[in-house]
Amino acid sequence: MKVVPYPVKTNKEALVYEFISKGLKGEIVKIVRFEETESLPKKMYNISLVDYDPVTNEYNSENFTGNGDAKKVITTAGKIIMDFLNHFPNYSVYIEGNLKKKTIAYGVAINLFIDSIENNEYEVKGVEGDTNLAIIEVFYDRMRMDYSAYIIRKTIKQKN
User: Fold this and answer.
1) Cα torsion at 49, 52, 58, 62 (round to 10°)?
2) CA–CA distances in Å: residue 67 to residues 8, 138, 139, 159
3) SS3 state at 2
4) pTM for the complete prediction?
């Protein structure tokens, strides 16, 4: 069964996206931010997915929300990544959780959607090790979940 993403709003620079998660804990504002990395190559943007509390004006990236809609949230985040890369086709998105269990969850999510990602002309790579001594390889082993991060970029078609 195909999961339909949540409706999304973005700023005009396409660097911040917002959507509402609806589930067991009610409505939770989710913010997806793209920030250029300083320690990685140019045109590499780190993605962060956080909960936002409009009452306290606080952001929380520490825990899983547990709202019962994880597949829909991940589907929405995947759609946001594709939108970002359509705006910036020469950029790459760097995905690393602030906790190891989140990075593993991102790997599982990529694994669930790898066919649609690859069919839509995006390339996924797994990062092994820290950013200074990283080994980067094409994400091909669907059972492998021990990457320290992932990189997604749009495949640039050569003009004939």
Assistant:
1) -40
2) 18, 32, 29, 45
3) coil
4) 0.83
